[in-house]
Design brief:
Blueprint lengths: L18 H7 L7 E6 L2 E6 L5 H18 L3 H13 L2
Antiparallel strand pairs: 1-2
């Protein structure tokens, strides 16, 4: 971390990322983050969705992994139904 800045948490739980940091990182409105917290440390990691061309290979890898683990289509449907009932 070469540059540090301070910000304040609003009553709505919002924070402002200082302009200098937004510009340096090229952050635009609507960018999504993963938020990780451990004790008094909060980390924001920019989510970079895969390009459309990469998505097909990711799906193929996921299907291979599911097949190797013995996961079946019906298992997915059952898990979804179970989670929805728990709401």
């Amino acid at each position: 971390m070469t540059n540090a800045a301070t910000t304040t948490l609003s009553s709505k739980g919002q924070i402002v990322i200082p302009e200098e940091i937004r510009l340096r990182l090229g952050l635009k409105a609507g960018v999504q983050f993963v938020v990780v917290a451990d004790r008094d440390v909060v980390i924001l990691k920019v989510l970079d969705p895969p390009a459309l061309g990469e998505f097909a290979s990711l799906v193929a890898e996921a299907r291979k992994a599911a097949k190797r683990s013995g996961l079946r289509q019906g298992d997915v449907s059952t898990a979804i139904t179970k989670v929805r009932r728990g709401r």
